[in-house]
User: Which sequence fits this backbone?
């Protein structure tokens, strides 16, 4: 099939990963016309996540990434109101016109609503302030995952991993199963970045050392990396002199954080706390008709949650496209004590809303939503940590006043 | 005696499990889920193993695969390291049984690889 000129649709979904697939299916369920543009493969990053642990919430079983993706893709098959285009969206205007480049040529998609499900990118070596040489053999965890899992090649035999984000932990296990030796996982923070499950099952099972409050001060070797200089850091993440030690390796893999991709946001506000678009409880950004979900909105821990967000955003977008998303007054939700970020930042008054909260530190206590008078509107008690996002659903009666969410230690 | 960090919730309790001939005792857990986790990790830890298997004549070099059931932890490395040396012929469909008994474990494809054109 080849396209040229202009394609008109109700909803344009940009991105065919977990978020975009769910958004397209939910929009199609409303009965509107949907165009989904995916730049590589339907399933997105799920295709390279060959490990299991997906779908525990959505399907009640532990699926691998490709299996989870295929269950989501099946929901779009045979739908006459969904078109899938493999191509790249190069720009999106606030009038909701997108330029698409594909093998079939360049064309324009004009939509009544757009869902940005573009996912995230990885923080790269260049942003880390690491000294030494600039050799070959340094990979981000996602790139390594692609090379090993999708292309069936190896990145090295002796590997050091910097950062303990989930992808780094997962890859530590993958490298080990592939016969490589993971010398160490170094984490600059005093606690692991990834889920406890991954620390236990990816590192603990294989006795891979996790060194906290430790970073890479320097890499050495050229043209190929020969090793890193690891060093302890103090509370302000400054290297403690005298703690440096060399670890020989032929690959350094970085798992140091994900950043939402917001390049296509047409002039809408970005929340500095998440790096993603600022949205209301219907997932609409500050640009009318532009919705955001999944890792493009904020970095999630679980694909199941990404799918749930995608479905909600897709449904909202479809209703907006046909003029059935009534405008509503909103109340703000503000991050208070110990809270790093909160999504959404605005809630439609008197509507049920799920709020996702990420903490600044681990604590056992209460996460409380309070109004301006300090009245506790809704709370959640228990053990909470920054590496596990907290979801709280507010009832319609609880979304009538501005709220501040804070985590209080007991 | 074995020690674990509980993964059932973000609290991350430090669990200790120990047994004599008659009884398995767990300590350090804040709740019942922690006890159950420590008991299963102590007596019979199991994992689903996921890995790639080589593909000959396919449009991709490898196909992702898994064990059909969770296997004992001690079998994880042997299964994965043997599987990566195996090759199957394209086409492969997700759900295909690639090997009926690799070290006694059934191996199933988790994605599809078409024949190379």
Assistant:
């Amino acid at each position: 099939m080849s396209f040229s000129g202009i394609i008109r649709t109700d909803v344009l979904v940009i991105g065919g990963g977990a978020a975009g697939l769910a958004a397209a299916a939910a929009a199609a369920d409303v009965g509107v016309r949907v165009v989904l543009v995916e730049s590589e493969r339907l399933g997105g990053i799920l295709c390279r996540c060959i490990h299991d642990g997906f779908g525990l919430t959505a399907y009640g079983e532990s699926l691998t990434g490709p299996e989870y993706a295929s269950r989501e893709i099946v929901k779009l098959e045979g739908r006459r109101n969904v078109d899938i285009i493999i191509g790249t969206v190069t720009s999106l205007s606030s009038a909701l016109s997108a330029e698409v480049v594909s093998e079939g040529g360049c064309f324009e998609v004009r939509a009544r609503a757009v869902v940005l499900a573009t996912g995230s990118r990885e923080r790269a070596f260049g942003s880390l302030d690491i000294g030494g040489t600039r050799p070959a053999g340094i990979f981000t965890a996602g790139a390594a995952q692609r090379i090993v899992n999708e292309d069936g090649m190896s990145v090295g035999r002796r590997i050091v991993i910097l950062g303990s984000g989930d992808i780094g932990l997962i890859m530590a296990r993958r490298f080990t199963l592939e016969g490589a030796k993971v010398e160490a996982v170094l984490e600059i923070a005093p606690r692991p970045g990834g889920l406890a499950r991954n620390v236990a099952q990816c590192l603990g099972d294989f006795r891979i050392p996790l060194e906290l409050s430790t970073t890479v001060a320097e890499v050495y070797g050229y043209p190929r990396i020969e090793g890193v200089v690891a060093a302890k850091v103090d509370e302000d993440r400054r290297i403690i002199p005298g703690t440096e030690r060399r670890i020989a390796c032929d690959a350094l893999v970085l798992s140091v954080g994900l950043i939402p991709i917001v390049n296509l946001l047409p002039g809408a506000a970005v929340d500095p706390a998440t790096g993603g678009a600022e949205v209301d409880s219907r997932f609409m950004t500050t640009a009318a008709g532009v919705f955001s979900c999944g890792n493009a909105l904020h970095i999630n821990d679980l694909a199941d949650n990404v799918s749930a967000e995608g479905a909600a955003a897709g449904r909202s977008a479809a209703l907006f496209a046909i003029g059935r998303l009534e405008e509503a007054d909103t109340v703000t939700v503000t991050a208070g004590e110990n809270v790093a970020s909160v999504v959404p930042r605005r809630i439609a008054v008197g509507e049920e809303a799920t709020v996702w909260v990420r903490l600044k530190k681990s604590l056992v206590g209460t996460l409380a939503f309070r109004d301006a008078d300090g009245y506790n509107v809704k709370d959640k008690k228990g053990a909470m940590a920054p590496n596990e996002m907290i979801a709280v659903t507010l009832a319609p009666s609880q979304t009538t006043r501005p709220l501040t969410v804070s985590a209080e230690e007991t | 005696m074995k020690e674990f960090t509980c993964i059932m919730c973000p609290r991350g309790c430090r669990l200790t499990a120990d047994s004599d001939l008659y009884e398995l005792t767990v300590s350090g857990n804040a709740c019942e889920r922690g006890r159950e986790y420590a008991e299963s990790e102590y007596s019979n830890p199991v994992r689903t193993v996921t890995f790639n298997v080589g593909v000959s004549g396919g449009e991709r070099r490898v196909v992702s695969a898994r064990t059909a059931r969770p296997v004992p932890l001690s079998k994880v490395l042997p299964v994965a390291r043997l599987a990566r040396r195996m090759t199957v012929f394209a086409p492969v469909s997700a759900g295909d049984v690639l090997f009926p008994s690799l070290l006694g474990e059934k191996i199933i494809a988790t994605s599809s690889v078409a024949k190379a054109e």
